[in-house]
Amino acid sequence: MNSNEETGIDWQHAEQCSKVVCESGESGGLERSIDWKQGLAIAVGVPLLILPSIGYFAGWLWSAAIIVWGLSVFQGFMQNLAYGELATTFPKASGLPGFAQNVFKTPDYAGKYDRGKLIGGFSAWSYWFAWNPVLAIFAILVGFYLHSLFPSLANTFTEYQLSLAAGIVIFGGLILVNYRGVSSGALVGYILAALAFVPLIIIALAPYATGDFVLSNITSTWLPTDWVWDLNSVLILLGIFAMAQWSACAWETAAIYGPEYRNPGTDVPKALFSCGAICFFAYVIVQTTVTGVLGIEGIANAPIDPMLPVAQASLGDIGSTIAIVMLIAAMVLIIQTAYLGSSRAMHSMAVEGNLPKVFGKVNSHGTPVFAMVIIGLFNLVLISMGTPTAILAASAIGYVCANGISLFAYVKAKMNPHLVGLERPFKAPKGWKNVALMFGLFNIPLCLIGIIYLNSIEGSWFSTGVGIVVLALYIPMWYYSQHESHVARSEPQTA
């Protein structure tokens, strides 16, 4: 096989394979109704995931946080090349949750408890927990911005009350918008994407034109003065990378709509890598701008909302108010991205028999509304945790587990005799299973140890506890689901 065949994309063949998939069966009730541009419109909210971590990362690493973001997006490309191939190998699978469940389950297993399905299902549950809290995190940020920008609201409501009200309105509104299918969400995504990038680009680039960006704020503060390259620092850095990939690698969500793309063989890789290119520039530029304008001390004075003083410095009070209101609209976009991703993860698990079948129910438009309602209620509870970074730290534990297991799934898919011969319209470069294995081990155990250690020295054992408890809850649910599936198979079939 020549190099072009091994590393490139045979788009004609991919499209033929996609059409066969579309015609040959259903994907658990989900409808194939979007193209790659619509998938990108939904996933393009991912750059907003940098917002909760700008101040936190600068507090630990100072200006070196810029490098961490760049390396993390690079990590995303390394991992997503593998996921892009898996997406076209299993075109009916919903992204990372679906890949792991397809690879690890035992073919033609006739028993009651397939331990392989437990591994794949746990990966999917971890992914669900990684995306799910995005709703709560950004509802809290919306409440915080509203509290800061509108004094009349601040005099009447607390930040928690505003965040809770924002959550109820946004979650309920998105359920209604997406009730008729993901294509409706894509339309909203187009509108919100414009609102997202206009303020983000203006706030990120305006300081270079106004003279508010000061390069020495970066070059004179690369690392904290007491930073020592010892085991403690390495573990902290691994924890930071675990939290960074939660944001900077999250554009893999473009692949989760695999069962809903009209031509998954071509649509998935186009949506995936277009979103990745946008993320690379967004993450590096935003952290660079904030550090250059505010300096480390300025960021320390606004750890949760550093974009506010940056906007005020370059745009003035009126301009910054308009920009931040638009930024709030952009936060609704990333909430929608997370909402659709986590609901598809639950739907995928239920269809595979790894969650109770009630979570697999869809309405007449192919939307898993019940799963969306449960996710919304769960996030209203999470909002009570109050601090976005505390929720993020718990969520990052799930994301590390999901990525590690999914990368190991790619390695197995390239080596297992039952899987190696499957059609792959998109192929990662030759030998990529070794790269996937390396990054899988980077996630588990290294980043997993790092995030738990970082939580411990932050005094945030609560975040670790929440993460472990939520992930552990999957075990009894899985056994119940397997029992439910076994009973269903044992019942006599009626004509």
Automatic annotation (TrEMBL):
Would I find Transmembrane helix among this entry's keywords?
yes
Gene Ontology cellular-component terms listed: plasma membrane
For this UniProt entry, what is the primary localization, expressed as one broad class?
A: membrane
Q: Where in the cell is it found?
A: Cell membrane
Q: Which InterPro entries match?
A: AA/rel_permease1, APC_superfamily
- Entry GO MF terms: transmembrane transporter activity
Q: Where are the membrane-spanning stretches?
A: 54-74, 125-148, 160-179, 186-209, 229-251, 271-300, 320-341, 362-383, 389-411, 432-454, 460-480
The way this protein sits in the membrane is described as:
Multi-pass membrane protein
This protein is called APC family permease
Source species, please? Answer: Methanolobus zinderi
Lineage here is:
Archaea, Methanobacteriati, Methanobacteriota, Stenosarchaea group, Methanomicrobia
